[in-house]
Design brief:
Immunoglobulin-like, 5-stranded mixed beta sheet, 14 helices, elongated, binds 2-acetamido-2-deoxy-beta-D-glucopyranose
């Protein structure tokens, strides 16, 4: 049911005006917080907190500085930390109540928290110990969520960063935290935490806080550190145990997140960010997560989606794992098959427990507590929706994700996935019944730094990205850049629709009342667009070309998915026909002759998979006419390209201005390279359009300059003879020549050596002029050899895509064996399997 696209770097790169904020001397804008009630985006940077307008982040409403005093600073540097690391990096920014934000910073490796008054925007100086809430080292991970005035965080608890912690801080109670044990947390890197409100249900369930992180596996034996992506959860009502697990979580459980391509045995095992797409019923809430692989050289990123109901099922019904000692010293994690104590260890207090007089975690029996202390890890993994990633992208490292659900004009909801990369690029992809397509790619961070934080506001319909260099605000859609109905519809962007009355591509969210008459097709069916009158030959751009020179006819396809084809006098042109080269930018015709005259049409063809048809339209049209041969003068060949006299473009919105039909486009072939090697033109004829420009053949024919022709013929004849003699001498030519050679040189009659035979073919290929150049054996031989090697060893990457069998439309393969146990390291071949997995990426 589900399959996913595999994208190389996307061709279409948008250059748009974005709103940016940064202040000189301030860096690391990595903590962002959107206010729900005010027009405010709070930004935590290095030694500063800003309040920006969320409608326009260039507007700074407030700023407060939070520097480290001299004494802690010198103590920090005395402990061997760099001056830069000892600065105060603001890492926690949460709304405490209507008057205050709660703010924490690394503060010279002595994390501190303070209250920030929203009204006056000043720190109140009630500094609190930030241990367990904020990291010591700015390079360590911190994730926090404020739930009903209590701060839940995941970070490290000590200076060295060796003691990881998931904790809850509330002004009324003591810090509740994880046990310090590698089976609870083992070198975790926290990426996200959020609350899922389940409270108030008929079962009297508690709200739960979910943490997402990558940690080092304990359950698999591996030759190095094997990372495992995890989801862990704790209950909001947890108060710790009475005797066992005092001031520790009694509800801490964790499970493995699976994001893999089972057919290829390829595992994405590092989670970077999570976005929770909330639904009315928490069971339908979706968790979007971005992954890469620990083996970074593979260069693949993936988005996997998890269903909250399934996550909950793993936690409430999953089997536990336990540590078993084998062969005395060696421990191994295996499934626990014994009887689990009741109530279920790690479960939140619900009505059933209350009936047994267990009203809080303080009343839980020691047996249950001891069990959960020893068995925090569940064996059952959390599997992704569809059993596989929804999106796989090659050659990027995704760092952040945000998801918007948009109801399109067809009444259906589409999930739009925004992913940020480590090079400051934003990808926007649309998910439609398991099919995904990338709509656009934007360079958000101009400096190319990583996107460290990405927030989405449906209210302002903007994305906010934090990086080391600043904060950027971008709209969620750029409908205005689609200039025609076809472009607007074929982009298949659920935000955009064509408004025939204003002839503009508009954002449907801008006008929720007047959506009647708007044209949108998420299936990419542009037939509903108003018919554009077909071009009549009168409207064609007229291109005047001198015989023998080259012409370039530009054609900009409407989208990056379109295939471009050309027609001459109504019949299709192929790459193979004469000197035509169809590049990205248009058609290049070399050495235009009388037979090239005619009507050229550029058509784009786009396959609209959802609509099940091809959609084609005319993008540009030209009439190519040979210029009358001008009065002859000195013999020379014009190497320049022709200038069209009237390069008027058709009415279909060809972006090229008039008279510009030979704008040098991004064609991979340039005329100079293909032109025959001839002496440089005399200086007086440099201007290609000047009256001196001549076509030589025309001149010769007109003048009947037989002498010149004869000279040329003789020259070529001599060259031919020289080449023949040389090749014969080098034994490139067959038997009769060899006999002659033997008679002349007296060499032995050894059979041709294989490499000569191999290069023989290569020497016959190039046209005469090139042949002369290639004739000297060493270069020719080398060239050929290089070519051959290239062909044989380069794997077929299919234009950078991984082989399609890895993705096929299938998805049916229910819970395939490898999704159950993608890290089954019991077999010694495990690391070899992972090495194999590198192959498909070329
Ligand atoms: C802070 O920003 C600076 C400048 O861009 C960068 O070199 C440094 O690595 C950043 N530090 C952290 C902890 O992100
Ligand atoms: C992705 O990150 C890895 C590890 O940090 C790095 O080696 C690789 O070059 C990055 N790839 C891209 C495309 O940025
Ligand atoms: C195309 O049509 C024009 C006039 O209709 C004719 O002169 C030209 O030779 C034709 N070209 C080809 C390649 O058929
Ligand atoms: C659509 O166009 C592609 C590419 O030219 C072609 O292979 C395919 O058969 C066409 N499909 C239909 C239904 O016309």
């Amino acid at each position: 049911k589900y399959y996913q696209g595999c994208f190389n770097s996307i061709v279409l790169m948008l250059y748009v005006d974005l709103l940016e904020f940064s202040e000189p001397g301030v860096f690391n804008y990595s903590t962002l917080l959107l206010s729900e009630t005010r027009d405010a985006l709070y930004v935590g940077a290095r030694e500063a907190i800003f309040e920006l307008s969320k409608r326009n982040v260039t507007v700074r409403n407030n700023k407060v500085q939070w520097k480290v005093a001299d004494t802690p600073m010198s103590m920090c540097t005395l402990k061997g930390k760099s001056k830069e690391d000892c600065l105060n990096y603001i890492r926690v920014l949460q709304v405490l109540n209507e008057e205050h934000l709660y703010v924490c910073g690394t503060h010279a490796f002595q994390p501190q928290c303070d209250y920030l008054s929203i009204k006056d925007f000043v720190l109140e100086g009630r500094a609190e110990d930030g241990r367990g809430k904020c990291a010591f080292d700015p390079s360590h991970s911190v994730t926090t969520v404020m739930v009903d005035g209590e701060l839940y965080s995941g970070t490290v608890y000590n200076f060295l960063g060796s003691e990881p912690i998931i904790s809850r801080y509330s002004p009324q109670q003591a810090l509740l935290r994880t046990e310090y044990s590698t089976s609870w947390l083992n070198e975790p890197s926290f990426v996200f935490a959020d609350v899922i409100r389940e409270g108030g249900g008929p079962a009297g369930e508690d709200d739960k806080i979910y943490y997402f992180f990558t940690e080092v596996s304990v359950e698999y034996e591996f030759f190095g550190k094997l990372f495992i992506p995890r989801v862990a959860r704790v209950c909001k009502g947890d108060l710790g145990g009475q005797r066992t697990l005092q001031k520790k979580w009694t509800s801490f459980l964790k499970a493995k997140l699976v994001c893999s391509m089972p057919e290829l045995n390829f595992v994405f095992n590092v989670v970077h960010d999570v976005f929770v797409l909330e639904a009315e019923d928490w069971r339908n809430t979706l968790i979007y997560a971005v992954f890469t692989s620990q083996w970074g050289n593979v260069g693949l990123s993936a988005v996997c989606v998890y269903n909250m109901a399934l996550v909950d099922e793993v936690f409430s019904k999953g089997k536990y794992m336990q540590k078993a000692t084998v062969e005395q010293s060696h421990t191994k994690w295996v499934r626990y098959n014994g009887i689990t104590p009741s109530p279920r260890p790690g479960a939140c207090i619900d009505n059933a427990m209350r009936q047994e007089n267990i009203n809080s975690s303080l009343h839980l029996p020691d047996k249950t507590l001891q069990f959960v202390k020893d068995h925090p890890l569940l064996e059952d993994p959390v599997l992704p929706v569809g059993g596989r990633p929804h999106l796989i992208t090659k050659d990027v490292n995704y760092t952040q994700i945000a998801v918007d659900r948009v109801t399109a004009l067809d009444g259906r909801a589409y999930d739009v996935i925004f992913t940020g990369t480590d090079t400051g690029v934003l990808h926007k992809s649309v998910l439609d019944e398991g099919e995904v397509h990338v709509v656009e790619e934007i360079q958000l961070i101009k400096s190319g730094g990583a996107i460290k934080n990405l927030l989405l506001s449906s209210e302002t319909r903007s994305l906010y990205a934090g990086s080391d260099s600043g904060v950027v605000q971008s709209p969620t859609a750029f409908c205005g850049k689609y200039l025609s109905c076809d472009q607007c519809v074929l982009a298949r962007d659920p935000y955009c629709a064509w408004d025939p009355s204003s002839s503009a591509c508009v954002n449907i969210l801008d006008r929720p009342e007047t959506q009647n008459g708007l044209i949108q097709s998420l299936k990419g069916d542009a037939d509903s667009c108003p018919a554009v009158a077909a071009l009549s030959p009168r409207d064609y751009g007229r291109v005047l070309v001198r015989p023998g020179s080259s012409a370039e006819l530009p054609c900009a396809p409407p989208s990056n998915l379109a295939l471009v084809s050309w027609r001459l006098n109504g019949s299709a042109l192929t790459e193979a026909s004469r000197f035509h080269f169809i590049g990205e930018g248009g058609l290049l015709i070399y050495s235009v002759g009388p037979e090239d005259q005619g009507r050229y049409e550029c058509w784009s063809l786009e396959w609209a998979p959802a609509a099940g048809k091809n959609f084609s339209r005319q993008v540009a049209a030209y009439t190519l006419v040979l210029a009358a041969p001008p009065a002859p003068r000195g013999p020379r060949k014009d190497l320049g390209r022709a200038a069209p006299e009237l390069g008027r473009s058709g009415p279909l919105g060809d972006p090229f201005p008039e008279g510009n039909a030979n704008t040098p486009g991004p064609s991979p072939l340039t005329p100079a390279r293909l032109s025959p090697p001839l002496p440089p033109p005399p200086p007086h004829s440099k201007a290609p359009g000047g009256p001196e420009a001549r076509d030589p053949s025309a001149q010769y024919l007109q003048r009947g300059n037989a002498a010149a022709l004869l000279c040329l013929f003789l020259l070529f004849f001599f060259l031919f003879l020289a080449a023949l003699a040389y090749n014969c001498y080098m034994r490139y030519l067959p038997a009769p020549c060899l006999r002659l050679r033997a008679a002349l040189v007296g060499g032995h009659k050894s059979p041709l050596r294989p490499e000569y035979r191999a290069c023989e073919g290569g020497l016959m290929e190039p046209p005469a002029a090139e042949k002369l150049k290639l004739a000297p054996r060493p270069e020719g031989h080398q060239l050929r050899a290089l070519r051959d090697t290239g062909y044989e060893t380069e794997p077929d990457c299919g234009n950078g895509k991984i082989p399609s069998h890895g993705f096929g439309g299938g998805g049916g393969g229910s819970d395939s064996p490898s999704s159950e146990k993608p890290f089954d390291v019991d077999s010694d071949s495990q690391h070899i399997e992972f090495a194999d997995a590198d192959e498909p990426s070329c």
